[in-house]
Amino acid sequence: MIPRVLLSTLLISATQLLVGQNASEIVRKADEMMRGEKSSYSEMTMRIVRPKWERSLSFKSWSKGTELSLVYITSPAREKGQAFLKINREMWSWNPTINRTVKLPPSMLSQGWMGSDFTNDDLLNQRSIVVDYNHTISGEEQIDGWDCWRITLTPKPDAPVVWGKMILWVTKKHYLILKSEYYDEEQLLVKTEMAHSIKDVDGRTIPTIYELIPAEEPGNRTIVELNAIKFNIDINDSFFSLRNLTQVK
């Protein structure tokens, strides 16, 4: 007969393992819901709002799996042609004005992308939330009437990530991330992202507007609207190359 104390310990360990596996599976499904299980192509408009000004830019984005992504700026005219590439853990930017490709060092991952509240890491490092963090279900809440899991993400040892902790609210139906909180290494809230305007697009139900709000900068926010998206398109790995970074349209 197994001693009661040992049995309780085994049951607790098994439960914790099961919850951990479920949390990771939820995050993976939520990530694939917006990226596609294999690949995706999207067209978006970003509006950067500040207390005394605002501006907009549009861009195209291609991704394949969690290791390959490419972003191309389509407007405004003064920034059109700039492009960004990620291959595995390496990232580059291309600026046609100066005819130069620059490899982005890890120190630039936390910098604002195109002057927005999104970082280079947010836009390009698509593998991060699935691969670089441990996942734990830390509660259940409703967001805008949707029943959600609250999942806490903590970085794995030596993971090359920007955030000290993330908290995601993922809907139990459709696996949509409706709210994300980003914390620094001191566990202070840096910014909150909210998803809105849920619609049926290309065969799946997804949010089409994202709003990012910094915690310490009143009046600042960045809104991204999804204008078009296609999931699981045919795209060769060779598309994601330094050569194509300078030629993509």
Description:
With 249 residues, this protein is α+β, with helices and mostly antiparallel strands. It has one domain (4-60, 112-232): Lipoprotein localisation LolA/LolB/LppX (outer membrane lipoprotein receptor (LolB), chain A). It has 4 helices and 13 strands. The chain has helices at residues 4-35, 120-124, 128-131, 242-245; strands at 39-50, 53-64, 68-75, 83-87, 90-95, 100-103, 133-143, 146-155, 165-171, 177-183, 189-201, 204-214, 221-231. A hairpin with a 5-residue loop joins strand 9 and strand 10. The chain starts with a helix and ends with a helix. Residues 1-19 have low confidence and may be disordered.
Task: Give a concise summary.
It is built from four helices and 13 strands. It is an alpha+beta fold and 249 residues long.
List key phrases describing it.
249 residues, disordered N terminus, 4 helices, alpha+beta, 13 strands, outer membrane lipoprotein receptor (LolB), chain A
Helical content (DSSP H or I, runs of 4+): 10-25%
Question: How much is the radius of gyration in Å?
Answer: 19 Å
Tally the structural domains.
1
Low-confidence stretches: 1-19
Please identify the top-level CATH class: Mainly Beta
Helix/sheet category = alpha+beta
Number of strands: 13
Q: Calculate the mean pLDDT score and round it.
A: 88
Topology summary:
Elements: H1 4-35, E1 39-50, E2 53-64, E3 68-75, E4 83-87, E5 90-95, E6 100-103, H2 120-124, H3 128-131, E7 133-143, E8 146-155, E9 165-171, E10 177-183, E11 189-201, E12 204-214, E13 221-231, H4 242-245
